[in-house]
Amino acid sequence: MKNNTQHAALVLAVLGLPACAPAARVAPVSAQASDATPLPALIRSTIRTETTMQALFMGRLHLDPHGCLRGGSDEGPIIVWHHDTGIERAPDGRIRIADSTTGNAVHVGDEIALSGGYRAGPIGNVTEPVPQACQPPKRFFIAGRVMSEAQRQDMLQRQHRQPQAPLPTSAPAAPTVRR
Asked: What is the pLDDT of residues 39-70, one digit of tens each?
């Protein structure tokens, strides 16, 4: 009986040791793949708001050679993500941006739609230090919530149904009258 009690005490002591150790930061399992390259910095707004500007970005989510998330191409706007977004590596190895409130997610290379607005100047009020390579020379895009693919398709359909604005017609030149 004494051996069983000592054995139980030893097991409890060993199991309790991790709780006494300082907390170590453990990366999510999805980011621990042996061939995983570091994730790019996710530049997020520190301003917690449910409102968004009314501009629309539609295009491909692009990762430039410097590790900056941009809209469209290497010259596209840097995206400042909504404060409730996070970045992770998906099980298939792609980089995923997920909105923790809506559950919507997009991957680098996907066609995306984001509400928000364009701004010029240095980026401010963000959670990550903005890497020098990601400082926008002209403008950046402050994004609202991540839209689902169904929402993006719905927006494309609505745009397709919008009547085309007539092109301006030029008025004929007034005749020149000489007196």
From this structure: 998 999 887 767 666 788 899 999 999 999 99
Hey, what amino acid is at 68? C
Q: What is the DSSP string of 99-136?
A: ETTT--EEETTSEEEEEEEEEESS--SBSSPPPGGGS-
| H or E element that contains 145 | strand 139-146
Domain boundaries, the chain: 42-160
- φ/ψ (deg, to 5) at 41: -65, 130
> What is the per-residue pLDDT for 133?
86
d(CA 97, CA 74): 18
pTM of the model: 0.67
